[in-house]
């Protein structure tokens, strides 16, 4: 009897190409949506470095190659984000951008339903101010 094949989220959504489109769209939304102004304000003027790191992080997070860890070591997300004041507004704006980017780049509603709950939990975990 053979083992059942498993598919990662990374593979299911389309791999590197989809993760790249997702992160690109995420930062484009953050950079342009008035509803994301507080979240945008805590990011560097040039978002290219943030986008590259987020793409690398999501690649591993979704079950693809551990690109972020290979380049930067353990993510230590809470520690790395401590300098940025992340309150409820920034968290919710970040989630808005992520949700919209995900809807635009991952057409499968079922996959989006699998992806969003842990991302929401992570966003709440990153909040570091009242």
Automatic annotation (TrEMBL):
* Pfam families on file: Bac_globin
> Keywords in UniProt for this one?
Heme, Iron, Metal-binding, Transport
User: GO molecular function, one example?
Assistant: metal ion binding
Source taxon at top rank: Bacteria
What's the family?
Belongs to the truncated hemoglobin family. Group II subfamily.
Please report the name of this protein according to its UniProt entry: Hemoglobin
